[in-house]
Amino acid sequence: MEWQITDTSFGQRLKLIRRSRGLTQKELGVLMDYPEKSADVRIAQYEKNARIPKETVILQLAEILKVSPAVFSKTI
Fold first, then answer.
1. Residues whose CB falls within 8 Å of the CB of residue 19, separated by 6 or more in sequence, listed in order
2. Side-chain-facing half-sphere of 14: CA atoms under 13 Å
3. Alpha-carbon gap, residue 4 to 76, rounded angstroms
4. What is residue 16's three-state secondary structure?
5. Distance between the two ends of the chain, CA-based, in angstroms?
6. Cα atoms found within 13 Å of the Cα of residue 38, Cβ hemisphere only
7. CA pair distance 18, 28, nearest whole angstrom
8. pLDDT at residue 73 is higher than 70
9. pLDDT, mean of residues 3-23
10. Which residue of 23, 29, 47, 52 lies most exposed, with the fewest beta carbons within 10 A?
11. Is the pLDDT of residue 59 over 70?
């Protein structure tokens, strides 16, 4: 699959990929091992760019979403 991502923000890229995988924010957060009651809040913070994840979190997101971590880079 070829990605046509024009918005360079981390959050918009995450949202696009999450939705393409058919996951809700809560589902992705639970897969990331965040507590269920706050799992969707954490993912929402990432998607709104209110919180920038550490490199280890980006690697985990990429693994769960089955994409290269480079997809989240602004240089693509």
1. none
2. 26
3. 10
4. helix
5. 15
6. 5
7. 8
8. yes
9. 85
10. 52
11. yes
Tens digit of each residue's pLDDT (9 = 90 or more) over 23-54: 999 999 999 999 999 999 999 999 999 998 99
CA quadruple 34, 38, 40, 43: dihedral, nearest 10: -60
Q: List the structure tokens of 46.
A: 């990432």
- Cβ atoms of 25 and 44 within 8 Å: the answer is yes
State whether the Cα torsion 43-19-60-33 is positive or negative: positive
This prediction's pTM? 0.86
Tokens coding 50? 């209110």
The identity of residue 47, as a single letter, is E
Tokens of 45: 């913070």
